[in-house]
Amino acid sequence: MKDSFLKAAAITPDIRVGDTEYNTNNIIKKMKEADSKDVKLAVFPELCITGYTCSDLFLQDILLKGALSGLAKICEASKNIDMFTIVGLPFMHCGRLYNTAAAIHKGELLGLVPKQHIPNYSEFYEARHFVCASDSEAALIDINELGEEFQDYEDCVDFNSKILFQAENMPELIIGIEICEDLWMPIPPSSNHAMASATVIANLSASDETTGKDIYRKELVRNQSARLICGYIYADAGEGESSTDLVFSGHNIISENGTILTESERFSNQMIISEIDLGKLISERRRINTFKITPPENLDYVLVNFSFDKVHKTKLTRKYSLTPFVPDNKDDRDRRCNEILNIQAMGLKKRLDHTNCKNAVIGISGGLDSTLALLVTAKAFDMLGIDRSGITAVTMPCFGTTDRTYQNACTLTQKLGATLKEVPIHEAVNLHFRDIGHDSSVHDVTYENSQARQRTLILMDIANQSGGMVIGTGDMSELALGWATYNGDHMSMYGVNCSVPKTLVRYLVLYYAETTSDNELKNVLMDVLNTPVSPELLPPKDGKISQKTEDLVGPYELHDFFLYYMMRFGYTPSKIFRLAKYTFEDKYDNETIYKWLNTFYKRFFSQQFKRSCLPDGPKVGSVALSPRGDLRMPSDAAVNIWQNDLDRIKILI
Hints:
Elements: E1 5-11, H1 20-36, E2 41-43, H2 61-77, E3 84-93, E4 96-105, E5 108-114, E6 139-142, E7 156-159, E8 163-167, E9 170-179, H3 189-195, E10 200-205, H4 213-228, E11 231-236, E12 253-256, E13 259-263, E14 271-277, H5 278-287, E15 302-306, H6 330-354, E16 360-363, H7 368-384, E17 391-395, H8 403-415, E18 419-422, H9 426-436, H10 445-466, E19 469-472, H11 476-481, E20 494-495, H12 502-515, H13 519-529, H14 549-553, H15 556-569, H16 573-583, H17 590-606, H18 608-611, H19 640-652
Parallel strand pairs: 1-2, 2-3, 5-7, 8-15, 9-10, 10-11, 16-17, 16-19, 17-18, 19-20
Antiparallel strand pairs: 1-14, 3-4, 4-5, 6-7, 8-9, 11-12, 12-13
C-alpha cells in the first residue's frame, strides 16, 4: 500500500449450487488465503453464497435465510482480517428480491449494492426472480431485516446502487461496485461511479462461456478501465456453477487503465492477485483535464468510510518492462516501429513541402541517431517523390573519429542513394583553438564543444548553399539529460528524433535492418547497432572509441525508465527508485541505480534551458519534451524537493 499500490484479488471459490453452508466455508477459506498474501481488496463472484444458477430455488425462504446466515459468518470471519471483501448474495427488501453485493471490512457490513440491470434474454432469466435497482430504492436497512445473526452489528446499513467506499488512511482508494450485466450496458454504473471519484471498480460476475465470449469480455474490462482511468477487478463464477445448460469458466481479470495486469486461466477456479497503482491513476486523471470529477454527494452518492489497520509496503508481483517505451512483444514492437517511422517521415515531409525545400542536410557520424535521421529523411523524400540525391549527408571527421564509424557513415549514405560530402574539421578546430587561446592538449568541455559547434556551422552553411534544411539527429534521451552542445548538435531546422528515446532509436534501426531486402545495407545497420554510443569528441585508443556516453552519464535504459515514469505519471524519485530496483534487480545493484537516478534529476533540472528553445519536431509517443507541447517547465526551476526525496533514499540503501 506504500507508494499507493493496492494489492487486489479476484477470487473464484469452489461452490455447490444451493449449498450456502459449503459455499460460505469456501469463501472464508479463500479470504484467509488472500489475507495471508497481503491482499487488501478481495472480490468474489455474483451470488457466490448461494450460487448463480439456483433458478426457482431463489424463491425458497430457506435459501435466502441461508444466504444471510452465510453473510453473517463471513462478516464474523473478517473481524481479524484487515481486508475489504465483496461477496454476492440474494437479498429481500420491501418484499422484492435483489441481486446484491455485500461490502465487508473487519467484521462490519458496510453496505449492500443491488444490481442495476437484470438480463432476461437468451440464456439469462434473472427477471423471473430479481428486480432491478433504481435510485429511488436507496435506503437504510434496519439491521433486524438481516436476521438474528446480525443483532450485534450496527443499527443500520446502506442499501443503495450509488455507494462508494473510501479508505480513510489510503484516500486514493475509492471503491465502486457493479454486477455482471451492468458492465455490458451502454452507460455502465461504473461510469457514474468513476465520475463521482471511484478509482477502483469491483465487478461481481457470473458470465457463462460461449465460444469467443472471453475475448469480448476481456476487451470490455480493459476498455472500461481505460475509459474510466481506473483499476477494474472482475471476479467470475467458475465450474461449480456449471449446471443444466450452462458452463462457467471462472475468467477473472484485473485491469488498470487499459492494461490487463493479470487474468486467470479459464475453466479452473483460481485466485488472481496483482497490485493496482492508484497513484498512477490519480496522476493520469489530473493530467487529462477533460476527466471531470464531481463530489459524490452532488451526484446523490453515499460515501462510506473505513480504515485499514495499517498501510504497509506492498510486495510487488506485477510485471514492469525494462523498456517502457518499447513493446516487449515483437509483433507489437514491429507495428510500433513502422508507425513511428511513418510519423517521423510525415512530419518532415510536411515541413519540406511547406517550405518548398528540395534538399536536406544531415551530419552523418555512423552512430545510431544520425543513422535513424538519415533513414527517416530518405523515407520523407520518397513520400514527396524527390530524388534521394537531394539529401546531403556530411561526414566531418575530427580528433575522435574512428575508421569503423567513418566507413559505416559512408556506406550507409551510398546505399541509401544520398549525396556524400566529406568535410574534415581538424584544421578549422585547431585554428579556432588558437583564436580563443585554448591549449589543444587539454581535452575539456571546450575541446569537445568546439568540434560540435564547428560541425553545426558547416551543416548550416551547406544548407544555405543548397537551399536546404538541416535535419536534427538528437534524440529525446539526450534532451532529457542535456547531453547536447548548446547551439551545436542541439540546433537544427527540424529535429526528426526529438521525441524518440534512445532505447527506441535502437529498435527503429533494427526494424529497418530486419525489413530491408538489401543485405549490404542490413549489414551496415547491424554494425551501427553494435557500435558503442559515443559523440567521438576525444581521440580514440588503439583505433577504437575511447569516449563511451553511457560510461559518463549512465545506461540509457535506466534513464529512459526514469524519464518515462517521471514525465508520464509524475512519480516521486523514491517511487521510481523502488520500481527500478524491482525491475532491474538482476541487472543493476541498488547503489548503481541510485547513482544514475541522482544524475538524471540533477541534469534534467539544470539543462532545461536547452529544451526551452528546441527546434520543431514530431511527437511520436505519450512522452515528449517540446516546450510547445508536453513540457512547459521553467528553465530555472529548483530541484531541491526532488533532491530531498533522493537524499532520503540514500539513507535507506
